[in-house]
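User: Just a sanity check before I run the rest of the batch. Below are the structure tokens for the first item. I only need the designed sequence back.
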């Protein structure tokens, strides 16, 4: 299954629309304004909240929490020099990627070198108005969690870019 995330450019808060391969709306994400930490609410097309994403403040490395149906997952950016790496606490998953190329892959930790265990591929589209991503998720059961992980990665990258530009 493929999903496409498009960030709305002229918005006071983070807003993302998520479409499927046919261009149909599947989800939308909306951030909160006037908040100390980044918070996103993910809704289905009926307007029901299906997930909540929020940032943990005052941590050495970026840490985001995902709440889906009472279950909490934690996305932690690990300390690395050349490649981006994220650990998903609560699952045996690891995301690795290239920050410059904006290409990421989510794997099962137990068999990280076997391509058959790829849970998701995430690529950022270049030269677009606002951030745009393509997600390729082979197992439809992982769609919601993979989408939330992709949104967390975008938030972490946006925070890093903002920190660099403020220097």
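Assistant: Here's the designed sequence for the first item:
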């Amino acid at each position: 299954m493929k999903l496409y995330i498009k960030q709305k450019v002229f918005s006071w808060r983070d807003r993302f629309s998520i479409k499927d391969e046919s261009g149909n709306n599947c989800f939308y994400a909306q951030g909160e304004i006037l908040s100390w930490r980044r918070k996103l609410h993910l809704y289905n097309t009926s307007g029901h909240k299906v997930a909540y994403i929020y940032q943990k403040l005052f941590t050495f490395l970026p840490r985001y929490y995902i709440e889906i149906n009472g279950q909490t997952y934690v996305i932690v950016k690990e300390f690395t020099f050349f490649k981006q790496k994220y650990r998903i606490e609560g699952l045996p998953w690891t995301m690795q990627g290239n920050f410059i190329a904006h290409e990421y892959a989510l794997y099962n930790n137990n068999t990280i070198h076997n391509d058959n265990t790829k849970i998701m591929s995430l690529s950022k589209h270049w030269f677009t108005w606002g951030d745009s991503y393509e997600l390729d998720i082979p197992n439809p059961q992982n769609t919601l969690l993979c989408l939330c992980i992709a949104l967390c990665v975008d938030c972490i990258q946006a925070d890093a870019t903002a920190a660099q530009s403020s220097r």
